[in-house]
């Protein structure tokens, strides 16, 4: 039953499916009928037109038969010609079609030759690529195309050779114009530095270093004097010129780098980039070695150094531009290698040639040029610390050249000085001198005009030249990126050399001159005394410049006090020597009248002349601390007198002995008269106290009292030695023997007194 039921169900489904299929067929038949009805009229029209065409064809056939019947030869000939024309037409059409394919190839080849002729290598290479890969494959079966294909490698080599020739011309051009490129780059760095200084308005030395103008305004010690290091001496790069406001072109504006770019691209396209890079780097290394060789006379002028620096800067500016505008032609390692070589050779050359410089102005200008050179290259990313370290070495040489120059300055000042106090006749002259030299004297200010300063003109001149030397040292420290403490230490050390070596030697040379007089020596003592007092003002002057307090740890002190003391002592010693020589000359004129029957009542003429000389000499000793000199004078003047006195004491004539003592009274009386202005009370007499005591000994002949009070047996020993050698009174032999016994007895007593005194 179940199976039967399923069969009945399947039969019913099949019947329904057939009904639907028949219904769909009927629908399609109706649509086909509608479409036929819609296009039937068009079909009828087409048949009608076809019938008309057939009719026209029949008419043409009749006409053709007519011509064939009446004109058979001409028609045959015309038909043959028509046939040939149609054949030619087909050939021409085929040829035109083929030429249409070849024409672009010919045009590209012509364009290629034109580009190569006009040295447009980069476009020519592009054209060659298009011709080879796009156009020639379309007409490769033609013979001329095969010739072109065979010629392409030759064209590539020709492009490489021509582009390499352009590169060589470029390398030669930048070698010749490196100095111009470097000069332009250094001008740009100078302008940038000036702009930075204007914007920042801060000194380069950390710690607030004052400018020269500021120091002049803040220090009462400043004066306006002519400096040996004048403004024109340091004119390395005058940025105040007319061209400062003009825009300085860059390296890319001065040099056409397109040959490098084209050649690099061409070699890259042709697969020879590595060959190109190696060639370029090799040639540039050769050029670097040529650039780094300084001319033999570079040290003679600043232009020689400037041209040398310009070439080096120009070389590395070009390399830096190539580094940043090409991909891999040069790399940082290659640039660093070149810079290390350049830095070592440049420093060696500067050390050698700068050692020949004897002009401090040239050394200072060289320093400024080196700083600009370093700043320029530092702006391009090159390390320049070694250059600044070398500048510290040049600073020592600069100090030496300054010392040599100031030696001449001091010599001229000392030679041209009149060694007389400076006279002033009005208030204006007085203020001018006080403004040049820190001097204050209340008594001198109260005096009416005209009046005189105690020192001569070389005092303010020397003082101002010391300050100008300090300024010259300060100029070198600018832009060296030094701390204020380092600058202060450098200035103080150089100033100490100036004082202890240069100025000291100049003063000693003046003092030791043969023709220098006592007046000049006295004035030198006065001058050095005032210069010694001014050392504290020089300390303040340096402090105002560097802003480093003297109390700072490790601050170098000025040695000016020692210098001027040594000069003053040397002058005093020279005065002692000259006076002693003069006194010896007077005493050599001493003449005793050995045959006189009674003592004289007045001093000898030579002694009167000596006292007159001393009186005129002491007149110029005003303002001098000559106590030590006055102590030396009696002993030095008494030695010749005692030498003569030892002989006189052995004379048998009592009045002759007493008369010989009288010359010794004369100097003591001279001291009592007060010949030296400014000495108070018995100051000068105290200097002659020993001589007075000696006179009392001989007059009173009280040796025991003398020895007990003074213990000085030297005089008696000298008299005894002299008596043994003197034969003047040999005829009085008995008296001579008695006198000799007395002398020996006294000598023994003196020895015993000496021994007891020492024990």
UniProtKB/TrEMBL annotation:
Biased composition (Polar residues): 224-233
Gene Ontology, cellular component aspect: exocyst; membrane
GO biological process: Golgi to plasma membrane transport; intracellular protein transport; vesicle tethering involved in exocytosis
Gene3D superfamilies with a match to the protein in the record: Dsl1p vesicle tethering complex, Tip20p subunit, domain D, Exocyst complex subunit Sec15 C-terminal domain, N-terminal subdomain
Domain Exocyst complex component EXOC6/Sec15 N-terminal residues, every copy: 20-186
UniProt-annotated stretches for the region Disordered: 199-235
Superkingdom of source: Eukaryota
Keyword entries, A-Z: Exocytosis, Transport
Segments forming domain Exocyst complex subunit EXOC6/Sec15 C-terminal: 386-712
Function of the protein: Component of the exocyst complex involved in the docking of exocytic vesicles with fusion sites on the plasma membrane.
Family: Belongs to the SEC15 family.
Name assigned to this protein: Exocyst complex component
Species whose genome carries this gene: Anas zonorhyncha (Eastern spot-billed duck)
């Amino acid at each position: 039953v179940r199976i039967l039921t399923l069969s009945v169900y399947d039969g019913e489904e099949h019947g329904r499916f057939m009904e639907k299929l028949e219904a769909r067929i009927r629908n399609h038949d109706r649509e086909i009928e509608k479409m036929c009805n819609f296009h039937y009229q068009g079909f009828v029209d087409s048949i009608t037109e076809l019938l008309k065409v057939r009719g026209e064809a029949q008419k043409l056939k009749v006409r053709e038969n007519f011509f064939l019947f009446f004109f058979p030869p001409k028609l045959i000939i015309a038909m043959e010609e028509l046939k040939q024309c149609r054949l030619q037409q087909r050939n021409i059409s085929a040829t035109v079609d083929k030429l249409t394919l070849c024409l672009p190839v010919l045009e590209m080849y012509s364009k290629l030759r034109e580009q190569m002729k006009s040295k447009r290598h980069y476009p020519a290479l592009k054209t060659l690529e298009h011709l080879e890969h796009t156009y020639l494959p379309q007409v490769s079966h033609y013979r001329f195309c095969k010739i072109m294909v065979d010629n392409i490698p030759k064209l590539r080599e020709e492009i490489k050779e021509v582009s390499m020739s352009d590169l060589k011309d470029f390398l030669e051009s930048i070698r010749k114009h490196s100095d111009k490129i470097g000069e332009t780059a250094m001008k740009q760095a100078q302008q940038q530095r000036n702009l930075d200084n204007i914007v920042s308005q801060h000194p380069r030395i950390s710690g607030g270093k004052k400018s020269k103008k500021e120091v002049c305004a803040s220090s009462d010690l400043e004066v306006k004097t002519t400096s040996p290091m004048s403004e024109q001496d340091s004119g390395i790069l005058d940025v105040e010129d007319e061209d400062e406001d003009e825009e300085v072109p860059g390296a890319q504006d001065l040099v056409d780098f397109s040959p490098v770019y084209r050649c690099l691209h061409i070699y890259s396209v042709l697969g020879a980039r590595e060959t190109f890079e190696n060639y370029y780097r090799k040639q540039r290394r050769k050029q670097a070695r040529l650039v780094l060789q300084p001319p033999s006379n570079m040290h003679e002028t600043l232009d020689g150094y400037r041209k040398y620096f310009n070439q080096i800067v120009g070389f590395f500016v070009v390399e830096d531009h190539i580094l940043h505008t090409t991909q891999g032609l040069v790399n940082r390692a290659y640039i660093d290698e070149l810079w290390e070589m350049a830095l070592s050779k440049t420093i060696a050359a500067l050390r050698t040639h700068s050692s020949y410089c004897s002009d401090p102005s040239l050394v200072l200008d060289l320093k400024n040029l080196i700083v600009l050179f370093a700043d320029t290259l530092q702006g391009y990313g090159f390390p320049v610390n070694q250059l600044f370290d070398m500048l510290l070495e040049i600073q020592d040489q600069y100090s030496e050249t300054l010392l040599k120059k100031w030696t001449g300055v001091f010599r001229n000042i000392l030679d041209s000085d009149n060694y007389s106090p400076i006279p002033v006749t009005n208030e204006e002259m007085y203020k001018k001198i006080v403004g040049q030299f820190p001097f204050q004297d209340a008594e001198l200010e109260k005096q009416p005009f005209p009046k005189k300063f105690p020192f001569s003109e070389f005092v303010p001149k020397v003082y101002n030249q010391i300050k100008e030397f300090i300024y010259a040292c300060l100029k070198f420290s600018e832009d060296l990126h030094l701390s204020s403490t380092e600058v202060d230490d450098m200035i103080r050390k150089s100033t100490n050399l100036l004082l202890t070596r240069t100025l000291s030697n100049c003063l000693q040379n003046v003092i030791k001159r043969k023709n220098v007089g006592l007046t000049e020596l006295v004035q030198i003592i006065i001058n050095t005394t005032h210069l010694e007092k001014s050392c504290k003002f020089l300390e303040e002057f340096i402090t105002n410049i560097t802003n480093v307090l003297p109390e700072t740890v490790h601050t170098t002190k000025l040695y000016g006090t020692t210098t001027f003391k040594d000069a003053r002592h040397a002058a005093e010693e020279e005065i002692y020597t000259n006076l002693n020589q003069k006194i010896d000359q007077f005493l050599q004129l001493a003449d005793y009248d050995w045959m006189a029957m009674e003592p004289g009542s007045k001093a000898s003429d030579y002694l009167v002349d000596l006292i007159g000389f001393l009186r005129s000499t002491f007149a110029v000793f005003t303002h001098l601390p000559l106590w030590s000199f006055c102590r030396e004078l009696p002993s030095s003047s008494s030695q010749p007198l005692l030498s003569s006195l030892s002989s006189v004491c052995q004379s048998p004539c009592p009045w002759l002995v007493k008369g010989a003592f009288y010359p010794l009274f004369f100097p003591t009386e001279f001291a009592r008269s007060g010949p030296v202005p400014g000495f108070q009370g018995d100051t000068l007499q105290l200097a002659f106290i020993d001589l007075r005591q000696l006179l009392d000994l001989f007059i009173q002949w009280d040796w025991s009292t003398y020895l007990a009070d003074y213990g000085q047996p030297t005089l008696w020993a000298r008299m005894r030695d002299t008596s043994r050698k003197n034969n003047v009174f040999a005829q009085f032999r008995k008296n001579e023997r008695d006198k000799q016994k007395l002398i020996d007895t006294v000598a023994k007593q003196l020895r015993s007194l000496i021994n007891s005194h020492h024990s």
